[in-house]
Design goal:
With 195 residues, this protein is an alpha/beta fold. The protein contains 5 helices and 7 strands, in the order βαβαββαβββαα.
C-alpha cells in the first residue's frame, strides 16, 4: 500500500517537479485533491516559518499527513533579498515573475557581485510530528533572461558548475540539481528510512 502524502500546493510546476522526484513509492496529492481551495497564509518572516504555517494549516484542518515548501532566492549583494519575499518582490499580489525579475536586475545594476542561492525549506507533518528539510543550490544572477522552461527566476539564475540558466537546462537537469529537488530527496530518504 503506497503512502499518501498531501503536498500543500496547487502550483502545477511544483507538483510535477516533486512527483518526478518521489516516483511511484508515494501517492502525491495536491490541495485540489483534498478539496482545499483556501488561501493559506504565508505571513512568517522566514522560509521555515512559512513552510510550517502551510503544513500545520493542512494537518489541523484536514487531518492528513502532508508537507509544504517555501522557497526564496537569496542574493548576496542584496543582503539575502528577495528571500522570503521572492514571489512578491515586485509588490502586488505576487507571483508576477516578469516584474520580479525586472526589479531584481534593476537592483543589481552596476553591482559586480552576482552571487545568489535558491533555498527551499520543506516542512512535513507525519503522524503529528514535524520535520524540516532544506535544499540549497548556489549560482549567480545574469543581466538578461535566457531560456523558456521552468518558472519564477529560472531564466536569470545560472547554477554553479553550469553555463546555462535553469530555464535553459530544462526540467530533467533542473530536477536533478535544484534546491527543491535537494530538499525533496532528503524528505524521500527520510520516508524510506522509516518504512
Amino acid at each position: 500500500m503506497r503512502k499518501k502524502l498531501v503536498f500543500a500546493t496547487n502550483n502545477a510546476h511544483k507538483l510535477s517537479e516533486v512527483s518526478a522526484i518521489l516516483g511511484d513509492k508515494i501517492e502525491l496529492l495536491s490541495l485540489k485533491d483534498i478539496n482545499c481551495y483556501d488561501d493559506i497564509p504565508e505571513t512568517a518572516d522566514t522560509l521555515e516559518g512559512n513552510a510550517l504555517l502551510k503544513a500545520r494549516y493542512i494537518y489541523e484542518k484536514y487531518g492528513v499527513d502532508c508537507f509544504a515548501d517555501d522557497t526564496g532566492l537569496e542574493v548576496e549583494a542584496l543582503n539575502g533579498a528577495p528571500g522570503v519575499y521572492s514571489a512578491r518582490y515586485a509588490g502586488g499580489d505576487g507571483h508576477d515573475s516578469e516584474a520580479n525579475m525586472k526589479k531584481l536586475i534593476a537592483n543589481l545594476e552596476g553591482i559586480n557581485n552576482r552571487k545568489a542561492q535558491f533555498r527551499t525549506v520543506v516542512a512535513m507533518i507525519l503522524d503529528g510530528k514535524e520535520y524540516l528539510f532544506e535544499g540549497i543550490v548556489t549560482g549567480r544572477i545574469i543581466e538578461d533572461k535566457r531560456g523558456t522552461t521552468g518558472f519564477g527566476y529560472d531564466p536569470i539564475f545560472i547554477p554553479e558548475g553550469y553555463e546555462q540558466t535553469f530555464a535553459e537546462l530544462g526540467d530533467e537537469v533542473k530536477n536533478q540539481i535544484s534546491h527543491r529537488s535537494r530538499a525533496v530527496h532528503k524528505l524521500c530518504k527520510f520516508l524510506n528510512s522509516i518504512q
